[in-house]
Amino acid sequence: MTNKKFEELCNDTRMFYRLPKQLFLDPAYAEISNDAKLLYMILLDRRCLSESNGSDWRDEQGCVFIYSTIEEMMNLMNCGNKKINELLKELEGCDLVLRRHRGLGKPNRIYVYDLLRADNSNWKPRAFSLVKGGELYA
Q: Is 1 a residue whose pLDDT tops 80?
C-alpha cells in the first residue's frame, strides 16, 4: 500500500469510530462500563455527522442533536432493549448524553457531549421549568 493510500484511509473518518482516551484516563468516567463507552463512541460518531450536515441537525438554541432509535442501537451493539436503556442511563449519569422525549411515536432527540472538542459550552439545550413541573425550551 502506498503512503498516499494509507493517509487517505487514515483520514477517512467514515471508516473508523473515535474513542476518546479521556473515557479511560479521567476518574470521572472510571465507573462507566466498557459497553457504555462503546455506545458513546457510536453516538459521538453520529453527532459529528449531524454537526457536519448543518442547521437541520440543530435545535432552536443551536445545539447539535441526533436521532437514534433504541432498535438501531440494539442492532449496532447486538444486545437487547433493557441493556441499551441501562447503557444510556449510565451515559446520562455522567452527563455525556441527554435524551429529550418528543412523544407521539417520534424518536428521542439525543444530545451528545463531545469529549474531543475544547469548547462544549452549548452542547445541550437550556430548560426552563414550568409551574406544573414540566420543561420548556427557550
A: no
Residue 52 main-chain phi, psi, to 5 deg = -75, -15
CA distance readout (Å), 136 to 88, 100, 127: 22, 11, 6
Residues 6+ apart with CB under 8 A from 23: 29, 32, 37, 40, 115
Instruction: Say how many Å lie between the first and final Cα of the chain, rounded.
Output: 53
pLDDT of residue 12: 58
Band (102; pLDDT cuts 50, 70, 90): confident
Q: Is the pLDDT of residue 7 over 60?
A: no
Query: For the stretch 54-67, what's the b/e string if a residue is b when 16 or more beta carbons lie within 10 angstroms of its beta carbon?
Result: eeebeeeeebbbbe
Spatial CB neighbours of 83, under 8 Å, sequence gap ≥ 6: 35, 77
pTM for the structure as a whole? 0.79
